[in-house]
Design brief:
337 residues, 11 helices, 21% strand, alpha/beta, 5-stranded mixed beta sheet, single chain
Length: 337
């Protein structure tokens, strides 16, 4: 097979997205003959017809659709390679892609960034052996804040190296076998209600009487599998009722304002508590529930472990950068254990 030219992959993806060669040319700022030229070269290299043309436009054939999917991956890797080389060239930094649920990310990422700045730069193994002191490296964070389920999916697909996620005592089954999780610290959970509701009784185990909240509106997360929401639901069901969810949001500052205004009740982790005098804050016993913050990464399979035994300086540099970030995550979260 002839070597592939990424311009053909770019042209094919553009046609698939735009629906015609003319629209693809416009989106790429190419001429139509240029788009057709690269499409013909790609079809020649692969030995297959990739585009079906009609008066209504142009669309990928069945095999063309398969090539579009691969083209998206290849072009994404090319973009990533360019960004990584630019980062390495300009600041001798190796990017580490870390995800976090927003409430944890807002607490950990700034401290993690500061901690990384205090760490001395390091050399790759080749440079250390050669005694080359001119090329020293450091890890650079590429941060994604998103919902729990989306971060798990991105970890599994390889789009993320690490993620800061949360779990609870009753919610550990979400961790796929392809991922491994390390416990960083635990947060106490607090039942927060409008002070106008009045005092809520607490039993000998420290559990509040939730039956007084039967008619109240609960604020839940946008993420349908949120760990804290599952805790709330389990306690409400044990009290004999299903919680009435009237709003969904992941901004705890906004949730606290809703509670203060008497519009909602919610379970809130310690790091997101409000000092608002109009909010009654009731601690939940750690023995009954808590929010665990976990550092999650992909599990190393036998195949990938075998591949890493081969000499690959890029992989070694990336592994060293990830190890640096993992060590500093543990350092900055130690204060909350």
């Amino acid at each position: 097979m002839e070597p592939l030219d990424t311009r053909g992959l770019t042209a094919l993806r553009a046609v698939a997205e735009a629906g015609s060669v003319a629209a693809a040319a416009t989106s790429l700022s190419w001429s139509q003959p240029t788009v057709n030229h690269h499409l013909r070269n790609l079809e020649k290299a692969l030995g297959a017809t990739l585009i079906e043309r009609s008066p209504r436009g142009s669309h990928p054939t069945t095999v063309g659709s398969l090539v579009v999917a691969r083209a998206t991956e290849i072009l994404g890797l090319c973009d990533r390679l360019g960004a990584e080389v630019a980062l390495w060239r300009d600041s001798q930094a190796v990017p580490v892609r870390i995800g976090a649920v927003p409430t944890v990310g807002a607490r950990v990422i700034p401290r993690l960034h500061d901690q990384l700045q205090t760490r001395p730069r390091w050399q790759t193994r080749d440079e250390a052996v050669a005694g080359d002191r001119t090329e020293v490296l450091t890890a650079a964070l590429d941060v994604t804040m998103d919902e729990h389920a989306k971060l798990v999916a991105r970890l599994e697909s390889g789009d993320l190296d690490l993620a800061l996620l949360v779990s609870t005592d009753i919610d550990r089954t979400w961790i796929p076998t392809t991922l491994s999780a390390t416990h960083l610290y635990s947060e106490r959970l607090f039942l927060c209600v409008p002070r106008s509701i009045g005092p809520i009784a607490v039993d000998a185990q420290g559990l509040p009487d939730l039956t007084v909240l039967v008619s109240q509106t609960w604020a839940f997360s946008i993420d349908p599998g949120d760990a804290i929401d599952e805790v709330v639901r389990s306690f409400c069901l044990a009290a004999g009722f299903e919680p009435r969810v009237g709003m969904r949001m992941d901004d705890y500052a906004a949730i606290n304002r809703m509670i203060s205004a008497g519009l909602a009740v919610a379970m809130i982790p310690e790091s997101s508590l409000s000092a608002d005098a109009d909010i009654e804050v009731i601690p939940m016993p750690l023995s009954a529930c808590r929010r665990d913050v976990l550092l999650v990464s992909r599990s190393a399979s036998a195949q990938s472990a075998g591949a890493r035994t081969r000499h690959d300086p890029i992989v070694q540099a990336h592994d060293s950068a990830i190890a640096e970030v993992v060590a500093d995550v543990r350092t900055v979260t130690r204060r909350w254990r």
